Structures are given as C-alpha cells and as structure tokens.
Amino acid sequence: MKSFRDKRRDNRPQPARSEQARPRDAFAAGRQQAAPAKRRETKQTDRQEPKPARRVLARREGLLPAERLPLILEVAPNADYALLDSGAGEKLEQYGPYRIVRPEGQAIWQRALPAQEWEHADAIFTGDTDEEGIGRWRFPKAPLGETWPMKHDGIDYLGRFTSFRHVGVFPEQASHWDHMAGLIAAAKRPVKVLNLFGYTGLASLVAARAGAEVTHVDASKKAIGWARENQEMAGLADKPIRWIVEDAVKFAEREERRGSRYDIVLFDPPAYGRGPKGEVWQLFEDLPGLADLCRSILTPKPLAVILTAYSIRASFFAVHALMRDTFAGMGGTVESGELIIREKSAGRALSTSLFSRWVA
Ligand SMILES: C[S@@+](CC[C@H](N)C(=O)[O-])C[C@H]1O[C@@H](n2cnc3c(N)ncnc32)[C@H](O)[C@@H]1O
C-alpha cells in the first residue's frame, strides 16, 4: 500500500506544501505501488482495464437546497483520543494508551509543550526506512506490536502503526460519525448506509451499532481485512455489514443499474487512488460524476450524503457549490466547512479536511 510518492513525502517531516500537505492521501494514493514489482503489476493491469467512459453530467433542475456555511466541526480532546500539542511541522497525539508523534504539515506554529513532553512519546514516525510493516516507526521506550486496543465512544477497534504514517483511524471523522448515528436513530425505521472509500471501517461500525444495514466498499483488500478485524474486536460481528473490495465508482454504477438504493451515503475519497483492477481515481476529474451517482442511488426518503475531501487545492466553497448543484430539487440543506481537531495544550485548531454534506 506504499508508493514511492508516500516515501518521498514521509521522508520529509515538514512538507509545508499547502495544497498537498495533509498526509492522509499518502495511504490511498497509489496503494498498489509498494515495490517496483508491484508497480509493474499495476501498469499491466492499467493496460488491461481501459478507463470507462466518464458519466455524462447535466445540471440538475429545481431549487438549490438551503445552505449553511461555514460550518466548522470540531473534535475536542477526549478519553479515547487527544491532540496533545502541535508545532514545528509535527503533532503529538494520545491514542488510547500511546503517545504518538507524527509529521503534520499544517502545524507551522511553535510547540506549546516543553520538549520533555514530546520526548516521552511511545512511538515516533520517522519514515526513514523503506521497509514494509512498522519499520518506519521508532519506539523510544519499548518495542511495540503493530496493533493496539483502541476505543471510540465505546466501540473497540485496533490502532495500527502503518508504514505510511497513519494509525488506522482519522479521529476528526468522529464529528460525521456522531451526526450520522443521530440521523439513523431519529429515523426510527430501517436505514441503509453505503460507505465508499471506507478504509478500516469505523464509520461502518458506528452506523451498524446505531441500527443501520451497512455496505462498506474499499479498493484495498488489506484495509477490508483490517475493517473486518475491527468488527470482531467491537463485538459487532452479528451486525449486518457487507464488506466489498471494489472500485468505488464501479460499485456505485452497478448499484444504480441494479436499482439498489441507500438512505445515507458517505464518501471520503482520496485526491488520487486506484481501484483493485488499477482503475484510476482522480478527485477533480471524478468527484462530480460520483456525487451525481450518489444522488441517483438514494431511496425515495433519503437522510444524508456526506462528502469529505483531504489534500485538495480547493476551498470548501467549491465542494459546497458542487453538492448544492448536485442536490438541486431535493430540498434539504447543504452544510459545508472544515473538520478540525482542537489541541489540548494551547487550544489551537488543526484543520484536517474539507467537507460538504446534504441533509434531507
Ligand atoms: C483516506 S481513506 C478513507 C478513510 C475512512 N473514510 C475513515 O474515515 O476512516 C481512503 C480509502 O480509499 C480507498 N481507495 C482509494 N482509491 C479507491 C477506489 N478507486 N475505490 C475504492 N476505494 C479506494 C483506500 O484504499 C483507502 O482505504
């Protein structure tokens, strides 16, 4: 799941490349390009899998949905997770029992906590080796395993030291999870949720616990394996979650053809990614078509469509305009802004991503 792109970025702890600096993409971008051999494989598959014709888009008719912006959704320090401090191109976070230091391109300010607080970290992402697995982490106190037990709001799952600096969860997404769980509970009827680009599945677990029937789609077999492990770990194995390794666009197209419909769609695409057969995902080219597809696979009484975008050269006004146009004629409200994490030390807001959501 690593790519040479990842390595280039990871080797530079202070990327400070404004539009590309948010690190999350490193996971999704070129997930099949870990080693030269794999890169060759991907190129071959590319040739076998011609890009399908792009969806023909026409502007949707009808009144634009109401709007609410800017909406800044904040995750505050809590018992499961806290951004302890940030600065000098890095962040210090508490994930359950572990204190972790990782690069953070947005943290262009100075650290607020003294050096010894940072030195007491359990794990530091160094990115200084090309080895697979957890070789790119340094464990100053004692060697740690690849995974460790974590909780989100009572849901058990595994934190994970990945070679591309992520830890198996994006805590800022908790704002969306809570909102979605509230919609599912308030609906008081069976709710179907589609989670595209679902990664390790926290959103799917939250939706399932809230009572929804969930379809989780990700291009990475490894990520789906991690998500299934999390389902076991959470004690939610009996909940209805379909785990699907598939290209997100292809899956949504198939659901449209088959007439399968959803009440809530989450999509959290990377700036650049690949489907299991080498299908290329490029956010700026493919997002309008996928947003339109998401609209057409909604039930007659849908609840919400939630989009998050990381690492793109755009303002939330851009995704807001796209979502409002896409949901014209459907009523409801489009709310857009940023997901932020509030720092415990000096209270600064660390911006992680843009989002836009249509809520019925
Ligand atoms: C940034 S993660 C999403 C994180 C997740 N929503 C969460 O909050 O935990 C992006 C995911 O997109 C997947 N991905 C990349 N390209 C894809 C594609 N073409 N189709 C489906 N999934 C893709 C990656 O494997 C990765 O798991």
Automatic annotation (TrEMBL):
Q: What are the BP-aspect GO terms? A: methylation
Which parts of the sequence are annotated with region: Disordered? 1-59
Q: Which branch of life, at top level? A: Bacteria
Q: Which SUPFAM superfamilies match?
A: S-adenosyl-L-methionine-dependent methyltransferases (SSF53335)
Q: Name the Gene3D superfamilies on file.
A: Golgi alpha-mannosidase II, Vaccinia Virus protein VP39
Q: Work out whether the entry's keyword set contains Metal-binding.
A: no
The catalytic activity of this protein is classed by the Enzyme Commission as 2.1.1.-
What ranges does the record list as Low complexity composition bias? 26-36
Listed A to Z, the keywords are: Methyltransferase, Transferase
Extract the GO molecular function terms from the UniProt entry. methyltransferase activity
> Any keyword Transferase?
yes
Bias class Basic and acidic residues marks the residues at 38-59
- According to UniProt, the name of this protein is Class I SAM-dependent rRNA methyltransferase
